[in-house]
Amino acid sequence: MSYTFVLAPDSFKESLSAKDVCQAMALGIRRVFPDANIIHVPMADGGEGSTEAVVDATGGKLMSHIVQGPLGEPVDGQIGLHGNGTSAFIEMASASGLHLVLANQRNPLYTSTYGTGELIVECLELGIRDIMVGLGGSATNDGGMGMAQALGYRFFDHNGKELDGKGINLAQVDTIDTDNVHPKLSEVTFTVACDVQNVLTGHEGASAVFGPQKGATPKMVEQLDQGLAHFASIIERDLGNSVTDIPGSGAAGGLGAGLLAFTNAKLKRGIDIIIETTELNKKLAQADFCFTGEGQMNHQTKYGKTPYGVLQLAKKLNPAMTVIAIAGSLSGDINELYDLGFDGIFSSIPELMPLNTLMEDASYNVSRVTEAICRILKSSQSHTR
């Protein structure tokens, strides 16, 4: 009997792309089930790897565009053009990501999403009609002010001085000018891929939760939080958009709120966007087994991460389908993930060893664990015949 395996993992950050994980899993499966029908569906949840997932799934192409990085330096931003030619996906991290800033230079008072806005402008100039923006991995805490500036919005303090879109200037904004906004902006539909539910301000807001990892001290967190609250009040007064308490508005340093305020964006779970784009439902409908995973699985996996999104869809289509997750590492209590429906959750780490060795051996370790799992599956299937 030939079985059908659907492979729908996310990337293993800094070691394997989602496509690489699929290939490693397939190698392990072939060692046990050489005649298996294996369907590769590289996944993402709106963050790293989402652009590649969209391009691969739709036969699109990846474009590079030089934009301003978080601190104003030139960086190679990326746009994933959908195969339909009228849609595009942007990972904000490719222009405004934390990985673009050296650890000793991280300071969210001075980083900006301007480069993300430049990528949006490039899409507008290309005639794109639908833009998806993936949030996550940001170096910024500017509420989308930098992005809006790139789109033509202008911000002034109470003395009429124009302000740059940076976290330190949020509290100084007195008026928002819309006279020079890009003329094509209102013609485009925006969908924001978001994998967190944090609101803009407060103890669950952008600054308090994510600011420290971007270099914010406790004093900076308080300053940025107050700045975002002030900025939101000016947005509501001048643009008529209330963004403070919307789940997801705090994503990417408040860029979620900025996209809601300055474009016609709607927030959506990132994994749902990728599931729709890859047509994962059609592929899972054929499956006997589904393998998913990501670099680390923990208590946050159930909050919109790729493995949980894949699990939900697979079990909805076929409650009896076997869904197995392979992660680079497991953290904390994962028993609740079993309660949610996973049939097996495995770490690919074979033993304690240096991190760089684990990174180098990641593909081998994924294929090794997949093979071991398949040997168990083969044995269990033979016993049920």
CATH class label of the largest domain: Alpha Beta
Report the CATH architecture of the largest domain. Alpha-Beta Complex
Distinct helical segment count? 14
Task: Give the structural class.
Answer: alpha/beta
Overall morphology = elongated
Indicate the CATH topology of the largest domain.
Glycerate kinase, domain 2
Whole-number total of structural domains: 2
Could you name the ranges where pLDDT drops below 50 across 5 or more consecutive residues? none
Distance between the termini: 11 Å
Number of strands: 13
Radius of gyration equals 22 Å
Mean pLDDT: 94
Main beta-sheet strand count, sense and barrel state: 6 strands, mixed
Percentage of β-strand residues: 15-25%
By CATH, the superfamily of the largest domain comes out as Glycerate kinase, domain 2
- Give helix % range: 25-40%
Order of helices and strands: EHEHEEEHHEHEEEHHHEHHEHEHEHH
Strand order of the largest sheet: 3-4-5-6-9-10
SSE order and pairing:
Elements: E1 4-7, H1 18-32, E2 37-40, H2 50-58, E3 61-68, E4 74-81, E5 87-91, H3 93-96, H4 114-125, E6 130-134, H5 145-150, E7 154-156, E8 175-177, E9 189-194, H6 206-210, H7 218-239, H8 251-262, E10 266-269, H9 270-278, H10 280-284, E11 289-297, H11 306-317, E12 322-330, H12 335-340, E13 344-347, H13 355-360, H14 362-384
Parallel strand pairs: 1-2, 1-11, 5-6, 6-9, 9-10, 11-12, 12-13
Antiparallel strand pairs: 3-4, 4-5, 7-8
Describe this entry's structure for a reader:
- The protein folds into two domains: 4-42 and 288-384, Glycerate kinase, domain 1 (Rossmann fold, 3-Layer(aba) Sandwich); 50-271, Alpha-Beta Complex (Glycerate kinase, domain 2), CATH 3.90.1510.10.
- It has a six-stranded mixed β-sheet, sandwiched between helices. The chain has a five-stranded parallel β-sheet with strand order 2-1-11-12-13, with helices on both faces.
- It has 14 helices and 13 strands.
- With 385 residues, it is an alpha/beta fold.
- It has helices spanning 18-32, 50-58, 93-96, 114-125, 145-150, 206-210, 218-239, 251-262, 270-278, 280-284, 306-317, 335-340, 355-360, 362-384, and strands at 4-7, 37-40, 61-68, 74-81, 87-91, 130-134, 154-156, 175-177, 189-194, 266-269, 289-297, 322-330, 344-347.
- Helix content is 38%, strand content 19%.
